[in-house]
Specification:
The chain has 135 residues and is of the alpha/beta class. It has one domain. Helix content is 27%, strand content 25%. The protein is built from 5 helices and 6 strands, in the order E-E-E-H-E-H-E-H-E-H-H. Strands 1-2-3-4-5-6 form a 6-stranded mixed β-sheet, with helices on both faces. Helix 1 packs parallel to helix 2. The longest helix is centred in the last third of the chain and has 9 residues. The two termini are 17 Å apart.
Amino acid sequence: MLKAIVLEGERGSVVIMDSITKVTPEDAGAHVVSASHGGASSGEFALEVPLSSVFFNDAGVGKDGAGIAALAMLGARGVAAGTVSHESARIGDSRDMWDHGVISHVNAQARARGFVPGLPLKRALAAVVGGAGSR
């Protein structure tokens, strides 16, 4: 299961992980790209560590928005969160999300930081952390 720092900038780092269950206290303050679905259970894991932002796969959004339910949960706690489209990146594959993911949904905190649906996730995160050197 992949977990790696892929970008470091003046304003933080980006950590990719195939599953949000791999988030640890060492990730505090990081921008996390998790290839998990954006459902409520993923949101609960993300809330265990204070993250700067977190992105999931929208998993096709699902019934009643279940695939993006974490965005509202995280937003209620002040955490910027979003998803990438399941049509742009494979669920469960954080490297694919980093390389090809296109933002599909964001909460208000993420939008205020410049994360906008339609933007490539890698480009948006590079602008936020101030880093051009991705791994």
